[in-house]
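$ ./design --mode recover --in tokens.txt
reading tokens...
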């Protein structure tokens, strides 16, 4: 009887947590765990990670059905937003399809690198003051948070290792970007390296933007994922260690 009640409650859901079902049904957690385990073995459920499940639709086979990777990624930690290389590709800034889904959050999570249903996920924790510039998009009937175009660019300039390097984010400058928003976001990040990389790329691609010049003698790498060699840009105090020719 308990199993029938549970199935009736789950029939209208695609994804759920054990806490949601416990609150919805009033079933104690221990017998609920046993029930969910049995349903999973019968091929009616698939566990995403501890305490989180998806419903397997009728006619689908266990191990072959999944949801969009952005939906799965948004369930792994709260608050969260799809970001970095994943967002670059979503916004059409790069043709490269990353083999990892990057998820940005302000929360702690024990595991930052996960593999779920054959897909790799990277959880990137940032400071709360850097968690902004997020929009909601609809994917397969679910609302998913993702960094907007300009915030994606700024995030990638902040942490180029999570976007495949500066070459990938530089491709975004071939598209139409809101320069006022770029400037606002860059200043809000409170990171000199972001401003200097943005300033150099805007100059290179002929984008008019008003950014403060660096008040330092120290130089940073345009792309910290690449070797420290190349010519220097004295205006932005940047070592140009990647070749951007051809991206114009």
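writing sequence...
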């Amino acid at each position: 009887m308990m199993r029938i009640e549970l199935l009736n409650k789950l029939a209208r859901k695609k994804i759920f947590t054990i806490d949601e079902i416990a609150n919805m049904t009033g079933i104690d957690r221990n017998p609920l765990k046993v029930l969910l385990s049995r349903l999973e073995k019968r091929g009616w459920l698939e566990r995403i990670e501890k305490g989180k499940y998806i419903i397997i639709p009728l006619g689908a086979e266990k191990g072959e059905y999944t949801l969009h990777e952005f939906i799965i990624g948004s369930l792994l930690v709260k608050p969260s937003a799809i970001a970095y290389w994943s967002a670059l590709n979503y916004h059409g800034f790069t043709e490269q399809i990353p083999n990892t889904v990057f998820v940005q959050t302000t929360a702690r999570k024990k595991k930052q690198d996960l593999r779920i249903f054959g897909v790799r996920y990277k959880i990137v924790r940032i400071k709360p003051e850097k968690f902004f510039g997020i929009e909601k998009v609809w994917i397969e009937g679910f609302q998913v948070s993702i960094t907007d175009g300009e915030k994606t660019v700024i995030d990638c300039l902040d942490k180029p290792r999570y976007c495949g390097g500066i070459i990938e984010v530089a491709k975004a400058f071939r598209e139409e970007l809101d320069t006022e928003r770029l400037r606002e976001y860059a200043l809000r990040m409170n990171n000199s390296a972001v401003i200097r990389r943005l300033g150099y790329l805007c100059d290179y691609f002929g984008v008019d933007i008003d950014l403060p010049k660096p008040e330092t003698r120290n130089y940073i790498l345009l792309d910290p994922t690449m070797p420290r060699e190349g010519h220097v840009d004295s205006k932005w105090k940047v070592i140009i260690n990647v070749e951007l020719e051809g991206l114009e």
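exit 0
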